[in-house]
Structures are given as C-alpha cells and as structure tokens.
Amino acid sequence: MPDETCKLEQQGDAPQVFAVSKQIGGQWAFNRRDFIKAAGVTVAAASLGCTGTPPARAEPVAQLVEGAFAHKKAIYSVAFSPDGTRLASGSFDRTIKLWSLPDGGLLTTLEGIEGTVNSVAFSPDGTQLASGISNGEIRLWSVPDGRLLTTLKDRGPVNSVAFSPDGTQLAGSFDATIQLWALPDGALINKLEGYSDGISSDIVNSVAFSPDGTQLAFGTRFGGLKVWSPFDNALFIIVDGSKKESAIYNSVRAVAFSPDGTQLASGNNDDTDIKLWSLPEGTLLTTLDDGYKRGVLSVAFSPDGTLLAGSYVSTIILWSLPEGTLLATLYGHENLVFSVAFSPDSTLLASASSDNTIKLWSLPDGQYVMDLIDIAASSPDFEGAQFAPPDGSSVVTLPCDSPIPDGAACICNCVAGGLCSCVGHSGGSGGHYWYPN
Asked: Which fold has domain 75-375?
C-alpha cells in the first residue's frame, strides 16, 4: 500500500518548505530541510485534512534564518498599529511584544501574563492595545510605554478581541459568549450568551466589528457564522452551526469584514477554503479555492480592499479583489500560520506561526522582507548582528552579515566563537556582534 502524502509545499522550482506524510500504519511524519518539527503538529495536521495538488508555479519563499525566533513558543496573533509604525504579537509563551517598523526592532516585551495570549488588537487611535488571554482576561495596555491600564474578566478563555471603529467599545469572545465593554471606563454594555447542545457549549473563535461599528460578526467551533447587532440584539444567522456535528472540522476559525462593509470573509477548519458572503443579505458570493484543500486559520482584507489573505497549515495565500484571482502562495513558515495582518497602507503583510516566527512580506507581490527576531527567544545556535537605530527606541537583531544602516549605534558584546560582521556599518566602535547576550 503506498504512503498517503499531504505535501504542504510548492513542487518544481520552489524549494521544499514543509511536508506532512501519513506513513503506513497511520503515523504522521514531518520534515523541513532536515528539521524535525513534530511537536504539537500531529493532532493539528490530522484535523486539517488536505488533498489535491498545489499550483505548479514559482512562488515567494522566505529566507531560512536558522534558530532565529520572535517568541519562545507559538505565536497566535499579530496586529499593526493604525499608523503602521508598530506591530504587536501575542504568544503561547505568555508574552506580548511590540516591534518597531520598518526596521523590525524589538521595542518592549509585556510579561506577567497568566495565560496564553490568543488575540491582540490596537485601538483606532493607536494609544491602547487589547489582549485576549486564555485565563478569561482582557488586558488593556497603554502604547508605547506598555503600562497595564485595566483588566476585564469573565469565565472561559478569550479567543478574540476587537475595538469598535470609533474606539469607544471593545468586544471580546469569552468562551461561549461575546461581551461588549464601554471605553475608557470598562463598563459592560451588552452580552450575547452562547448555547449548549446538552454536552458542551459552543465556543466563539473570532469576532470582528463592521466598518460602521453597528454589527459584530463571529464564527464558532460548531460551524456557526452569525452577525449580531448589540444595540437592538438582532441576530442574523448566515450559517447555523448548532445543527452541525460538534466536530472541529466544521469550526469557523476566522471572520473579517471588507473595508466597505459589503462582504464578509470566513475561514473554516474543513476543506472549503475561504468563503465570501454578501451583506446584508448573507448570500454566498464565491469560494476562493486554490485546488489544495486544508483548513483556514486566519483571514484578512487589505485596508484598500484590493487583497485578501488567508493562512493555512504552513502557507499564506493572497487573492486579488474583486475578481478573486489567486495572486501568490507564500512559503517559508515551518508550521501552522495562526495569524495574518495587513499594514494600514496595504504595502506589508505580517504572518505569525506556531514555528515561533513572525515574517514580513511586501505587497502586492508577496516577496519576503524579513523575520522579526528577539535574541532572548532564539536558539543557542543563532548568531546575529544587533544594533540600535538612531533614535535608540528599539533593538534590531538581524542574521549574520546583514547590512547595518549608517548612523546606527553598534551594540557590542563579543564572545569568542560567536562573532558576526557588521557589513556596511560606518560608525560606532568595533564591528562584531555577539552571541550570547
């Protein structure tokens, strides 16, 4: 009997990035350029069924930066600040990190969080960051200083958070409920209760505000896709997940409104890829299908409305809108890509993965730009060049022999056996970079 193989990479000219193979006897094996990345993936790969043949064409592939990581554990969420100068990331390692853009420097790490950070979102004015945590908390932080402002708490994990477009309200998915809070006082405005099938309650995976702030779309574990108006409590059901089996294959993992509010994108953890629904009718417009079936983990519209991104087992796919043409498949992550986010000017895409990395891609071509690197989270085998930008606000870590901008201040801590060249650096003292810190 031949092996059943579900390959997650481009065949042909593009290098192999990741493969999942079901061997005889039903065991799953994983490989990635002589890496073994099996931890935490066996169950996920088995549940994210994949069939079909990837498109046979050259695609953007990220540079392999061995041992360089953004977090110590899986990264579940990334979000751009409204002015595009910062990126926030939330992780299973119970930290939130703020990164400067476009240089990719680490600004600060928010610690002391008592749970996994499942979701992060900036307020519309960029002065606050909301984080949804697995212990049932939503924590609000000030930006850029990272000071904890307040904590909102209820039962169950918070899988998703979203600010209203005017910044006066904050929505969070608490287990089987959605709660709406007033800002800045944190008063509870409204609450949409979940339902129970007699065995277990449905779980709200994702929430998104409509552009006019009057509605909240959400997707559930049992396959529900619904739109709630919290001001009159009207509930519009697009897909009634309560009538489906309570299986994770039906789970609606991601929802997103188009910038003009006329469409809703949803991503399911089954083989249907991304669906676009018309609003307010809720009719299915199209299914974006690249011919290669696997679960969708995240969806996002570009702010200019011309692109849609979806993340999958280890790839990101870009679609052009409104025609729905597949533009590119982005390769380079070694594991599940949990989150994608567009920059406010639609020129960058950030992707976050359970391989502990954050990658930046240029748009609309989808070319790899860089990894965001924190030396404290990286492997002992990683050697990197580190410098401080002229304003001294962050610390930038790059792979060995990366060009260092003029005017940057060298941060030297040379250790025998761990020296890296500062190519192109014309100022400061020394020219070698360190490992370890």
From this structure: Methylamine Dehydrogenase; Chain H (2.130.10)
